[in-house]
Amino acid sequence: MFESLASSYKKAVEEIEDIFEKEFSSINVIGGGCQNELLNQLIAEVTDKDVYAGPVEATAIGNLIAQLIALGEIQDIDEARTMINQSFEVKKYVKSYNENEEAYDERQGSV
């Protein structure tokens, strides 16, 4: 199941990169799903991109930030990002060396 989800992330990222004609070096996974360390690592492995997981309460934080910007309490999105990065945990997952990578790739091709 997790391999299928990770493969879906890979397909979605490839489609986004095709649309924007730009390659992205990382993926941000937010919300409750970002708490699954196995899935985050699989996404990093399958996509060959760094994965940043968190914050967990991204929807509520985004709502709060939008209100603070509207009220003039925060100047702009750059200030908001700095505040979020300093206030909430974000874990980084990177592709690790995997001796079975070729076998995995072959298995995915046969699905």
Kindly state the number of beta strands.
3
- The average pLDDT is 90
Count of DSSP H/I helices: 5
Low-confidence stretches: none
How far apart are the termini? Answer: 13 Å
Strand content: 5-15%
| Oligomer category | single chain
Order of H and E elements: HEHEHHEH
Major β-sheet, in short?
Answer: 3 strands, mixed
Share of residues in helices: 55-70%
CA radius of gyration: 17 Å
Strand order of the largest sheet: 1-2-3
Shape summary: elongated
Helix and strand composition category: mainly alpha
How would you briefly describe this protein structure?
This protein is mostly helical and 111 residues long.
Question: Main traits of this protein?
Answer:
three-stranded mixed β-sheet
How would you describe the overall organization of this protein?
The protein is built from five helices and three strands; from the N terminus they run αβαβααβα. The chain is mainly alpha-helical and 111 residues long. A three-stranded mixed sheet has the order 1-2-3, covered by helices on one side. Helix 2 (37-47) links the parallel strand 1 (26-29) and strand 2 (50-53). Helix 1 (2-20) crosses helix 2. It is elongated. The relative contact order is 0.16.
